[in-house]
Write a structure and sequence with these properties.
By secondary structure, the protein is an alpha+beta fold. Helix content is 28%, strand content 34%. It is built from six helices and 24 strands. The chain has helices at 2-27, 49-52, 116-147, 153-179, 184-193, 375-384; strands spanning 44-45, 56-59, 61-65, 68-77, 82-85, 91-95, 103-104, 109-114, 199-203, 208-213, 220-221, 228-231, 235-243, 255-260, 266-275, 285-293, 304-310, 314-320, 325-327, 330-336, 342-346, 348-349, 357-362, 369-373. The longest helix is centred in the middle third of the chain and has 32 residues, at 116-147. The radius of gyration is 44 Å and the shape is rod-shaped.
């Protein structure tokens, strides 16, 4: 049994050697050591003279850059140009002609409210005026009687005290009417005509757009209710919440770019107008705000935008973003070789700055040369070759 196994193994070995020798004869003579390879170097490209003329080569240098980071933001009304309007009296809405989205002028009536409270306050004012007239006549008579030695000075003093109290009552009643929304002119008409009107007019002191309306005809309202919000939308805020680890370099006055996708990626340049002084403990963010002019009203409150905030300037090695090509999931540049060819070199770069530059982290040194214009076409030619 053992003799048969050894014989079988020898036969298998002889067959394998025969196949190997036959394959070697089929391939021909092997390439001598040190001979040049015939395969094309996949990282090297030799462009045609016509392409060479379209390439631009520059030197890697240290320059001043401002890196930027992008955060989500939203458009909000300018809180310095907004009026929240409520009724100064309790009552029932009898008219509300101004609708949501309407443009209003300063002093324009927004609604009318029937108020028993206002009617009672007007009645009290008129009564205080009548009481004052009676007391004034009593004081005048008392002065005449004192002069005629009919009554003593103590009685005159008592009536003068009543006059002082009546004047104070009238002033308080007048102040109450003003607190209930009546103007000085309206109070003057009430004094002259003595006609009580329970209707209070709700008006705006700010010209702008009605962005909020919270009442209907027949609704009972209270002084604490906000019934209308009017905003001047010729200027708006853009507000973002910046992570606390990124806000350290953001200062008031720093340039910022605002991109608005809803307006076909419209891009506006502004400056930071506010940086919050506290960190939101729930989101770990700080509020950053800028202001945008909006004369044509195309920017709408609540629009979602992107805010690109530029960090403080610093000096660093940087190359144009146009010099970078992506290959195999990595970023590369083309560097020239002595024989006129170009080699694809992997590099590590920082994010693109607002000036279209990419900071060099590794892969290039100061003074080296690279293709800064035409890298995309050069890479296509490399892939073709």
């Amino acid at each position: 049994m053992m003799r048969w196994t050894c014989r079988k193994a020898a036969a298998v070995l002889a067959a394998a050697l025969a196949i190997g020798l036959a394959g070697g004869c089929g391939r021909g003579t092997e390439r001598p050591a040190g001979a040049p390879a015939t395969a094309q170097d996949p990282l090297r490209v030799q462009p045609a003279p016509a392409m060479l003329e379209r390439l631009r080569v520059a030197t890697v240098e240290t320059t001043e850059i401002r890196e930027q980071f992008r955060v989500a933001a939203s458009v909000q009304v300018d809180e310095e140009r907004v009026a929240r309007i409520g009724s100064s009296v309790s009552g029932r809405v009898i008219e509300a002609p101004v609708m949501l989205g309407a443009d209003v002028r300063s002093g324009q009536p927004l609604a009318r409210i029937d108020s028993t409270e206002l009617a009672i306050a007007q009645r009290n004012f008129l009564k205080a005026g009548l009481d004052l007239e009676l007391v004034q006549r009593g004081v005048e008579r008392a002065r005449l009687l004192v002069a005629a030695d009919v009554i003593g000075s103590a009685e005159l003093q008592r009536r003068e005290n009543e006059l002082f109290s009546a004047e104070a009552e009238l002033r308080a009643a007048r102040g109450n009417l003003m607190a209930l929304g009546m103007s000085v002119e309206a109070i003057g008409r009430l004094e002259n005509t003595r006609a009580i009107s329970p209707v209070s007019t709700l008006a705006t002191k700010l010209a702008g757009t009605v962005i909020e309306r919270r009442l209907t005809v027949g609704q009972v309202v209270q002084p604490a209710d906000i019934l209308f919000t009017v905003a001047d939308l010729s200027q708006v805020w853009v507000v973002s919440e910046v992570p606390e680890e990124q806000v350290y370099g953001v200062k008031v006055g720093d340039p910022v770019d605002v991109e608005i996708p809803a307006l076909r990626d419209r891009r506006l340049t502004a400056r930071v107008t506010h940086v919050g002084n506290i960190v939101n403990p729930e989101t770990r963010t700080v509020t950053v705000r800028t202001t945008l002019p909006n004369a044509d009203r195309t920017i709408k409150p609540a629009m979602l935008v992107t805010m690109a905030i530029r960090e403080p300037a610093r000096r660093a090695l940087a190359i144009p973003a146009a010099a970078v090509v992506r290959e195999g999931g990595r970023e590369h540049v083309f560097v020239p070789e002595p024989d006129g060819a170009f080699r694809l070199r992997p590099v590590s770069l920082g994010p693109e700055t607002s000036d279209g530059l990419r900071p060099v982290l590794s892969g290039l040194a100061q003074g080296e040369r690279l293709v800064v214009d035409g890298a995309f076409h050069l890479n296509a030619e490399r892939q073709r070759q």
